[in-house]
Amino acid sequence: MRRKYRFYGQVQGVGFRYHASMSARGLGLTGWVRNNYDGTVEMEAQGPEEMLTQLVHQLQSGRYIDIDGLESEEIPEQPDEKDFRVRMM
Q1: Annotated catalytic, 35?
Q2: CA 69 – CA 34 distance, rounded (Å)
Q3: Catalytic member of 2, 3, 35, 87
Q4: Rounded to two decimals, what is the model's pTM?
Q5: Is 17 an active-site residue?
Q6: Under 8 Å between Cβ of 55 and 2
Q7: pLDDT digit string (tens) for 29-86?
Q8: Marked catalytic residue, from 17, 34, 85, 87
Q9: b/e for 21-51, b at 16 or more Cβ within 10 A?
Q10: What residues are paired with 84 via a beta bridge?
Q11: What is the distance between the alpha carbons of residues 53 and 8, in angstroms, rounded to a whole number?
């Protein structure tokens, strides 16, 4: 399964992208994460549903990360994707 997320709150300048990429890789997920100009962080992650849920829980427990809101939707999978990476805006 693949999900697209948008995180709101104190999510930029607090190591969110690094934490997301390390957590996703540790869970065996593929996808990407990036900051948006509006102060949100956008992420697409692909893998088993349980691992996607665990990824979000790990992000919510990040040391300086303060997520005030979260939007997510299921999107089509990308079967050729091999890793999880940080993207620039």
Answers
A1: yes
A2: 16
A3: 35
A4: 0.94
A5: yes
A6: no
A7: 999 999 999 999 999 999 999 999 999 999 998 789 999 999 999 999 999 999 999 9
A8: 17
A9: bebbeebebbbbbbbeeeebbbbbbbbeeeb
A10: 31
A11: 17
89 close to 36: Cβ distance less than 8 angstroms: yes
Residue 20: name the closest of 48, 3, 43, 38 by CA: 43
The phi-psi region of residue 68 (left if phi > 0; otherwise alpha if psi is between -120 and 50; otherwise beta) is: alpha
HSE-CB for 48 with a 13 A CA cutoff: 5
Q: Tokens at residue 63, please?
A: 């040391």
Whether residue 18 contacts residue 58, with contact meaning beta carbons closer than 8 Å, is answered with no
Structural tokens at position 44: 């697409």
